[in-house]
Amino acid sequence: MIVFYYGLLLGFSLIIAIGPQNVFILKRGISGKNIFIVCFLCASSDAILMFFGIYGFEILQGKVKNIGEFARYLGAVFLFSYGLSHLYSSLKKETRLIIHENSNKDSLSLYKTIVICLSLTFLNPHVYLDTFILIGAVSRNYKDNLVFFWLGTSTASFVFFFLLGYGAAYLRPIFSKPSAWRILDFSIFIVMCSIALSLVF
User: Fold this and answer.
1) What is 84-111 written as a DSSP string?
2) How far apart are CA 130 and CA 145, in angstroms?
């Protein structure tokens, strides 16, 4: 069962970084429109991609010699670099996300909302790096409990996206403060570097 929590921690650490997908969910949450659809689509898409990343990597590992070792070290380098980028962000003074006051003035239809949501998910190259390379490489450490690892990473997506969507109105005043972003970024740095070390040693 502890593998589930490892997956949960990794999932949260990767997904919590602010990107176009998370910004879109924040704005949907503030507007109060189509929140459930957006959160469900994003979380379900992540869960599907992570499933193929974890089990696809396991199949590929059996067919391509030394790919496991290569992916393990590549994943460690990426995680460490990713962590350092958040350390750098934690040392900066400006706020990383600004949501304008008119964000609640919304004119997007349900169809446009779904199209934008899926585009931000499947046309983002980073999502494939995270789900196929990074999560696939880390899952190698838990090959006897892959289903629990996948459930952990998937649960992180569902919990985070729904909290972000429905809690956006409450999060806005908190993350309007640069200090909140610095604390968040430094926490991500610690988690990413810890996972990177676990891949190597």
Assistant:
1) HHHHHHHH--S-S----GGGG-----HH
2) 20
Residue with tokens 């779904």: 114
Q: What is the distance, to the nearest Å, from the Cα of residue 43 to the centroid of all Cα atoms in its chain? A: 10
pLDDT tens-digit readout, 36-48: 999 999 999 999 9
Q: How far apart are CA 132 and CA 139, in angstroms?
A: 10
Q: Which of 82, 71, 68 is nearest to 15 (CA)?
A: 82
Contact 75, 151 (CB under 8 A): no
Predicted TM-score of the model (pTM): 0.69
Per-domain boundaries in the chain:
2-200
The residue assigned the tokens 């629990």 is: 148
As a whole number of angstroms, the distance between CA 80 and CA 71 comes to 14
Amino acid, res. 22:
N
pLDDT digits (tens, 9 = 90+) for 118-170: 887 887 767 777 887 788 888 888 888 899 999 999 999 999 999 999 998 78
| Size of the chain, expressed as the number of residues it contains | 201
Q: Residue 111 and residue 165: Cα distance in Å, rounded?
A: 18
Instruction: Report the b/e string of 125-155 with b at 16+ CB within 10 A.
Output: eebebbbbbbbbbbbbebeebbebbbbbbbb
